[in-house]
Write a structure and sequence with these properties.
- Helices cover 30% and strands 43% of the residues.
- By secondary structure, it is α+β, with helices and mostly antiparallel strands.
- The chain has a single domain, classed as 2-Layer Sandwich (Alpha-D-Glucose-1,6-Bisphosphate, Chain A, domain 4), CATH 3.30.530.
- Strands 1, 2, 3, 4, 5, 6, 7 and 8 form an eight-stranded antiparallel beta sheet that branches.
């Protein structure tokens, strides 16, 4: 049985602007990753991220404690500016975990863009649930990144 995590947020950008936040590795690194329990952000290093289908990607996150978290996968589908689909897996101590799939979709809405983020193909409910706070926090960081950029533009 496959378990799915689904998060939806309305972002104050056009679909094209939302897609661009996922396209540029330097911008991606600025918001990718959760906050820790004290509200401190993880720092992400994008080792490979090129939005071309069948291209491998890799990101290493460093927790405020210094612990490293390695993520990787393959870009499966790019449908600019409507979304992207990629595989996702953790690598811990040289061991690669199960491969899951992430789909991000952007749709124009009255006050911006509705972003739907789905993390799918978890074998266990516990595995899915272990990702809820991390991805929610990561998307919080994305929203903060957007608002900070808009304030700088308007400031």
């Amino acid at each position: 049985m496959s378990h799915e995590l689904k998060l939806t947020r309305t972002l104050s950008l056009t679909p094209e602007e939302c897609f661009a936040l996922w396209q540029n590795p330097q911008i991606l690194a600025a918001w990718w990753g959760p906050y820790d329990d004290q509200g401190e952000p993880f720092i992400s290093k994008v080792e490979n991220w090129d939005l071309k289908e069948e291209t491998d990607w890799a990101i290493t996150m460093t927790a405020p404690s210094g612990k490293l978290y390695h993520q990787s996968g393959t870009i499966l589908k790019v449908n600019a500016p409507h979304g992207l689909t990629f595989t996702f897996r953790w690598t811990k101590q040289g061991e690669t975990g199960p491969t899951t799939k992430i789909d991000v979709h952007f749709e124009a809405a009255a006050n911006g863009t509705e972003m739907t983020f789905k993390h799918m193909d978890f074998d266990l409910t516990e595995d899915r649930d272990a990702h809820i706070s991390g991805w929610s926090s990561c998307i919080d960081r994305l929203e903060h990144f957007i608002s900070t950029r808009q304030e700088a533009k308007n400031g």
